[in-house]
Amino acid sequence: MSTLTTNARTLRGPSRVLLRVHRRTLWGAGAVSAAAIVGMIAVALLADRFTTGFAGTGCDLDSSVRACFQPARDYSDQMLDLGQMLTYMGLAVIALPTAIGAFVAGPMVAREWESNTAKLSWTQSYPPSAWLTARLAVPAVLVVCGITVLSAVLTWSRHRLGGPYPTFWYEVSIFGASGTVPAASALLGLSIGTLAGLTLRRTVPAMAAGLFVSGLVTVVLSMLRDSLWPAVRDTFTPGDDYIWPDQAAIIARGWQTKGGDVLPAGICADDSVDHEVCLSERGVTHGFLDHHPASHYWPLQLVETGILLALAALAVFAAFRVLRRLHG
Q1: Reduced 3-state DSSP string for 274-287
Q2: Do 283 and 324 touch, CB atoms closer than 8 A?
Q3: Angle CA 277–281–286, to nearest 5
Q4: Is the pLDDT of residue 118 over 70?
Q5: How far apart are alpha carbons 89 and 131 in whole angstroms?
Q6: Residue 260 pLDDT class (50, 70, 90 cuts)
Q7: What gap in Å lies between CA 129 and CA 323, rounded to an integer?
Q8: Inter-residue contact 286 to 237 (CB < 8 Å)
Q9: 264 φ, ψ to 5°?
Q10: 265-284 confidence digits (pLDDT tens)
Q11: Choice between 274 and 14, residue whose per-residue pLDDT is larger
Q12: Distance (Å, rounded) from C-alpha 19 to C-alpha 322?
């Protein structure tokens, strides 16, 4: 193998073989995705129906009229159920890249080594680099398109939901399932799965490794998300009528003394003591609130996307290095 670069004509053969061999799985994944999209659209339409029906009663959620108690309760319960359904769907979208990593690692790469179909493919008119590129490029196009559509429909459904239970951009089930992060996560899962399949060359161990590593990256990044972009710090003096910023993700809050010591926010929250006197006795000069305003949504999205894509590129590079070593 003189080079790892391939052109479109070289990729045509292995791409067709890949689609033919795994056509049942691809059709199944497409059917599940279509069902999920239909389900999310149905949730949005039901939300419109419930909202219109409740408005027709002439009541609102803050009404003190006894006749409105039951309609308001029914409406709140209905919207809560629909919101939970979209929350579960958001978590499923977040977990999807991990499943992609496991699938690619097993059936599409490692199993072909176990059955020797990979080596057989190399004896055809296309080189090993084309075989690997097809297993990266074809699933990448399908996965990115599919998960982008799922994410877009999920975001649209949430906006249609509204109701008494608002959602916030920084919630795990929302941030990780919207914007550019889902597509980047899918590419990383694909890359990790390919690398695991080439390295281990056994279906079950490769699937386990792809599942573990992809899931680990997802969990670690979600834990580090607040530190990916500088937070805003608001300061205020005790007794001020400080208004918390709307739609802000709170990172930390507390009090600071003259000596620079940081005290927890609830240190003087006991009802048995005077709040301002307690703070004064402890030498508190001001309070602080560290937060990410809603305007930080896209900076956080793009930084996390960049990290995911960089890790995916490293995994792809490592996969080609492993392929070069295997091919000799």
Answers
A1: CHHHHHHHCCEEEE
A2: no
A3: 80
A4: no
A5: 34
A6: confident
A7: 8
A8: yes
A9: -65, 155
A10: 888 887 777 878 888 888 88
A11: 274
A12: 24
CB atoms within 10 A of CB 250: 14
Cβ pair 178, 159 in contact under 8 A: no
- What percent of the chain has a predicted confidence (pLDDT) above 90? 38
Quote the CA–CA distance of 141 and 138 in Å, as a whole number: 5
Pick 167 or 105 by higher pLDDT. 167
- Contact status, residue 75 vs residue 61, Cβ threshold 8 Å: yes
**71, 51 Cβ separation under 8 angstroms:** no
Cα 293 to Cα 73: distance, rounded to the nearest angstrom:
32
Q: Is the pLDDT of residue 122 over 90?
A: no
Residue 4's identity, in one-letter code, is L
Phi-psi region for residue 179, left (φ > 0), alpha (ψ -120 to 50) or beta?
left
Closest Cα to residue 254, out of 239, 242, 270, 265?
265
Instruction: Give me the numbers of helices (H) and strands (E) for the chain, helices first please.
Output: 11, 4
Supply 278's token pair.
């307690």
Residues 6+ apart with CB under 8 A from 254: 262, 263, 264, 265, 287, 288
- φ/ψ of residue 166, rounded to 5: -70, 155
Is pLDDT above 80 for 69? Answer: yes
Predicted confidence band of residue 223 (pLDDT cuts 50, 70, 90): very high
Residues shown for the chain:
328
Output the pLDDT for position 128: 77
What are the φ/ψ torsions at residue 255 (nearest 5 degrees)? -125, 155
**What is 82-117 written as a DSSP string?**
HHHHHHHHHHHHHHHHHHHHHHIIIIIIIHHHHTTH
* 3-state percent helix, strand, coil for the chain, nearest multiple of 5: 70, 10, 25
